[in-house]
Amino acid sequence: MTSMTKSQVSFLDRELSQLAFNRRVMAQAEDPTIPVLERLRYLCIMSSNLDEFFEVRVASLLAAASLDGGLDDHPALAASLERVSNECHELVRRQYEIFNTAVLPEMKAQGIHIVRHSQRNEAQRAWVKDYFERDVRPLLTPIGLDPAHPFPQVVNKSLNFIVALNGKDAFGRGTAIAIVKAPRVLPRVIRLPDHLSKEEGISFVLLSSVIHAHIAELFAGRDVLAYSQFRVTRDSDLWVDEDEVKNLRQALKGELQGRAYGRSVRIEVAKNCPPELSQFLLDQFGLDQTRLYRVDGPVNMVRLGEIVEQARRPELRFPPFTAGVLAKTVNNDIFATIRKHDILLHHPFQSFQTVIDFIRSAALDPAVVAIKQTVYRTGMNSDLMEALIAAARSGKEVTVVVELMARFDEEANINWADKLEQAGAQVVYGVVGLKTHAKIALVIRREEGGLAYYAHLGTGNYHPTTTKFYTDFGVLSCQPELGRDVNEVFMHLTSLAKPQRMHHLWLAPFALQDQIIKAIKNEAKIAKAGRPGRIIAKINALTDEPVIRALYAASRDGVKIDLIVRGACMLKPGVPGLSENIRVRSIIGRFLEHSRIYYFRNDLAHDVMLASADWMNRNLLRRIEVAFPVLDRALKRRVVAEGLTPYLKDNSNAWELDDHGVYHRRKPRGKQKPFSAQQHLMESLGTPAAMPVE
């Protein structure tokens, strides 16, 4: 078979593919079989996803256009932005349509009300007025615009109001526009007292509605002609010249202060905002009409997630789920258990507590002499970080590689870096220019015969909260070669020396992309020899063009390929002569699919790799990433049986991608029974009873 030329290879649009993921999330909010508060949560998740899309992807496209002459000099980029803009506007329109015509009515039917000013009775209006006077008005600072009062700085994604005024101000001047910024310290969702709730249900008012109802009172002696809430979204990518700064942590602290005022990329206003006011805002923020989004509801739907928590209606949410917990070992000795055999953990179906216990045990064990761990995301509160601090204070050698550039977690990571250093830990920030995204921990223990290595390697972050909502795999092992490989990665990250040859790990940016392509080509070689070639990969995104080309070539050589890609996918499946042997599906369910699994049949060797890396250029070439093999045969079978096979059988939460980039919801066919991979795993792994250690 002749090799493909570049002109023969085609890719789907990355940005549109990412937006298609949000369509699939939005479809969950449309599903009447899902509890209504979870449907509301999906709308909030979609809003959060779109915020980040604008803050990062749209911002980067606009920045690229501004580097050399603007969009007029970049017709391809301009066309891409136009397609993205059209799709975003349609997504937002549909999102608010679902909110207003499906989710809100169902919430009302279940006794949960968001009460607008026009819907409030006299008692409710009196309570809201009192709340406004007592808790809101003292914090407001209306700004009438004139040469001495220029347009104020508006924080990224904050709630604000623009007001058109008639008449003259106290000094006899005709200031026509005022800006009111909603205090950030106030809740955006306020629950009314029970005795004021409608129909003996639960009633909420939004802060935006409270301010709307009383905004005229802020301008005594003036007529309010029109007003609208608005929100601006800004470029939120932090940038520091890592070759120039002497202290990355200090430089980032300075950058974080400016993130809230980055370049504007989007403005949201109320649907009925007068054109002259919306145009005034566009002019102030230097944006054109394509960046304006008129919404039929609150401009920040993310904050409606507070209703899900405040309503306290468990029957309107997913049924409670308890993760499986490994059975207690003899004397609670986790190291003795790991010495017997590797332990495989499948989160959130199995508890992350085992990993916390592993690090805590290491911190307390006098035989442990050193602990090393990477930190990408761990949250503001973390038992793991506290255990590392305790270990450092007790005199153990503690090394922590903290990724300061983990987007939107920079502040939390800086705080932990400060605390760890104060406790005596050695803290480093990875490699200049490369994010450290690997999820590895190493415990070095003094035992008979010398030092023993105990390693944890995972596909997800050391974040106890997200481990309850993200699907991930982790392995605890004391296999000597694997432990030495992990230690070599830490030596590389701290010393910046070239890593030695690995026995088991595939390390980015040095070898991971090459190893993946080599494994793909090996399956192609097997298929050309007339034996079955088989590849299954479960990843969050597939956008790396060299890997996609290798998959296309393998498909042409007869390799059967199944790709389970949660988010953006630039590969076109099912194209005759190019990818007819490739199927792509995406799973959207109760939990966020986050695990990365690479399976290669390899003539019945059944190679199974777990990884921190998606098949994206940034992961394979611009980050420190680790892919690691599952060496134990029984655990290998478990990864396939739990992490791949159910997802290929799923006919309830699966979406299949066609060659035009369109996803189609998979439904049971014929006499098939509905099957959800996540539900299956909850039932088979998640039980309150203690689970035997595999």
Automatic annotation (TrEMBL):
Reactions catalysed, as given in the entry: [phosphate](n) + ATP = [phosphate](n+1) + ADP
CC per GO annotation: polyphosphate kinase complex
Enzyme class, spelled out: transferase
UniProtKB keywords: ATP-binding, Kinase, Magnesium, Metal-binding, Nucleotide-binding, Phosphoprotein, Transferase
Cofactors demanded by this protein: Mg(2+)
Active site: H437
Function, in words: Catalyzes the reversible transfer of the terminal phosphate of ATP to form a long-chain polyphosphate (polyP).
Family: Belongs to the polyphosphate kinase 1 (PPK1) family.
Protein name: Polyphosphate kinase
